[in-house]
Amino acid sequence: MDEPSLPALSIAFITVPSPEYKAACELRDGILRRPLGLHLSQADTKDDHNQWHLGGFINNTLVGCVSAAKTNLQTQDFQIRQMAISDAMQGYGLGKRLMQFMETHLQSHGCKRIHLAARVTAQGFYERLGYVAISGVFIHNTLPHITMEKHF
Ligand SMILES: CC(C)(COP(=O)(O)OP(=O)(O)OC[C@H]1O[C@@H](n2cnc3c(N)ncnc32)[C@H](O)[C@@H]1OP(=O)(O)O)[C@@H](O)C(=O)NCCC(=O)NCCS
Fold it and tell me: Which of 51, 64, 109, 145 could share a disulfide with 69, CB 3.0–4.6 Å?
């Protein structure tokens, strides 16, 4: 018998504040912070109102999110941050789709370069999307990270 296929993913921008933003903060906390014994902090969210937030929804439930911030007005650099897919939905291609949607959006706003701090455990995910490492390993929020970038 065929495996049941994943219900359709819808991708939409999330405004700050909104019920969807609240759900995204809960997802970020649950996937990116609580497993480390941390909580989503004021430092994590203080600039959220100036950033883009993308949500991936299945049956109207948020299953993934990613955010982007403009970090250099002159060079059109953007930073991708807070990439998280719910535990049950990891490995189905949703992270890749959210990243590609965000990249297309940033390019339409003149983006020439995206950089991000990748967990070393997720480095291969970003490499498959064309990102390359540009730093040594450093510790951030208790975990080894590496800076990666992609030019457009
Ligand atoms: C890392 C994460 C965002 C990836 O999203 P995902 O939906 O599970 O990944 P996808 O199914 O879209 O994978 C896309 C490709 O990357 C690969 N990949 C996914 N996670 C990977 C990982 N941790 N290491 C290496 N490769 C990975 C997949 O095998 C797939 O490869 P393919 O295109 O050759 O088939 C997600 O697993 C997650 O939220 N993990 C926990 C939080 C986290 O680490 N966030 C990133 C912080 S920097």
Answer: 51
Q: With a cut of 90, say whether residue 2 has pLDDT above it.
A: no
CATH at residue 128: 3.40.630.30
pLDDT above 90 as % of the chain: 92
What atom in ligand 1 is closest to the CA of residue 126? 16
Is 122 within the bounds of a domain? yes
- What's the CA-to-centroid distance between 125 and ligand 1, angstroms? 5
Provide the CB-side half-sphere exposure for 96 (13 A, CA): 9
Q: How many folded domains does the chain comprise?
A: 1
pTM of the complete model: 0.96
Residue range of the domain that includes 25:
9-151
CA-82 nearest atom, ligand 1: 47
